[in-house]
Amino acid sequence: MSDQILTMDDRLPSPITQMPDFTEDQLQAYPQMTPKIRDAAFDGYWQPGWEICHYFQHAPRINGFESCIVWGPKGSYKSNREAWLAWVVYEDFDLVWKNYVMHPETFIELIRTPGRIPHMTWDDCASYLDSTLYFDNRDLYIKIKRYWWLLRTKISNFVCSTPNKGKIAGFILDDMTSEMKCSPRANFNYDRWAWRMNFKNPKKVDMFPVNIHQRRRFNYKFFEHARIFNPETVKLEPDPRTGIWFPAKEWDRYWAMRLEFSERGGGNLETAMKEAFSDPPDVHEIIESAAKNNNLQTDDQIIKHLTSKAATITGLSSAYKRTGDPKTKEKIFNIADDLGLLQEAKKAVRA
Q1: Cα(189)–Cα(249) distance, integer angstroms
Q2: How would residue 67 be classed by pLDDT, with cut points 50, 70 and 90?
Q3: Smallest Cα–Cα separation from 120: which of 150, 80, 92, 82?
Q4: Which range is least confidently modeled, 20-34, 147-161, 185-199?
Q5: pLDDT at 98
Q6: By the 8 A CB rule, do 71 and 82 touch?
Q7: Who's near 58: CB < 8 A, 6+ residues apart?
Q8: How many angstroms separate the CA atoms of 193 and 27, rounded?
């Protein structure tokens, strides 16, 4: 199979050409074997003996699909794991960041590129495609959902992150083939989702998880087989608290993108506040209040907190303009109180 069909610049690693056969012993080695999990292996939803890397390396080679949601509390290394998953596909950090999305503009630019995209990452996807979009602008939600199904063929692996997977747009959850739950101790669970017929209602599909990794420690040893240790990336710097390793220069590249994301999030929050309240404080005061009132210690925590609040208050403000519902106004006040802006909000309403 020609790489010309699969990648934009022919720099993917050597392919895994087919799913290997597995033996009964490999199948029975699964610790919690049940009849439906056994059936799921024969149907191809999971492969005995495979680890997480194999699925993402395999899909672009067969024009297949993987959709994974990486979720967990703030500070649980979700972005780190996303970058590693992209690395095991491309083995080239230039391609990792080239196909790494933080803003819708980047996503639009990528899908206009000729050819199929082997692996795309959307960091904090719910900042733009969250579940409240359906209630805020139903027509827009339906259009995005409809065209997403058409567009999805262009992307082989799609990986996105969010603190709470229930807050992401429903059509992305429907497309999910696997998920990774991250924890602050740098462990992760990886589960594949298998589909099963519903014999009581033919209109429904039953889905159930097949656990591949349970509380797996995420460190450099986990990806030794992915040929990370080459001359270009041999200088890795450890985090002594967790054992996570990441090339320092690549982390700097990611953090530069993240800080730009933060600045845009702060600007969006300021705009949202101006729409909701007539005279909001300066954006720097908002950031300081949010950090103080919510015990936010790091830039990453502040970024995610403000981005989430900006998206929420924008949706509530739009809903309040349409309905004038007092409960919606109360929710806006609650967010303002959380950010240390309740007095300003009340003054604006009285005025």
Answers
A1: 28
A2: very high
A3: 82
A4: 20-34
A5: 93
A6: no
A7: 16, 19, 64
A8: 17
Domain residue extents for the chain: 3-243, 254-350
Question: Angle, nearest 10°, between helix axes 78-90 and 248-276?
Answer: 130
As a whole number of angstroms, the distance between CA 198 and CA 100 comes to 37
Return d(Cα 14, Cα 240) in angstroms, integer. 33
Contact by Cβ (8 Å): 56, 87: no
Please tell me the number of Cα atoms within 13 Å of 170 on its side-chain side.
Answer: 8
Task: Give the Cβ contact number of residue 254 at 10 Å.
Answer: 20
User: CB of 101 within 8 A of CB of 157?
Assistant: no
Q: Could you tell me the CA-to-CA distances from 103 to 84, 108, 257, 292 in Å, in that order?
A: 20, 9, 10, 27
- Spatial distance between the Cα atoms of 60 and 253, rounded to a whole number of angstroms: 25
User: DSSP 3-state helix, strand, coil percentages of the chain (rounded to 5)?
Assistant: 50, 15, 30
Over range 230-252, report the average pLDDT: 51
**Which is more confident, 180 or 299?**
180
Q: How far is CA 219 from CA 16, 34, 46, 73, 83, in A?
A: 24, 31, 23, 19, 13
Q: Name which of 311, 309, 349, 327 is nearest 129 in CA terms.
A: 311
pLDDT digits (tens, 9 = 90+) for 116-156: 999 999 998 888 888 777 676 777 778 888 888 888 889 99
Distance (Å, whole) CA 283 – CA 300: 17
Between CA 249 and CA 237 the distance in angstroms is: 10
Instruction: Write down the pLDDT at residue 332.
Output: 74
> Following DSSP, what letter does each residue of 70-117 receive, concatenated?
EE-STTS-HHHHHHHHHHHHHS-HHHHHHTEESSHHHHHHHHTSSS-E
Tokens of 336: 């303002």
Map 300-317 to HEC letters.
HHHHHHHHHHHHHHHHHH
- State both tokens at 68: 């994974």
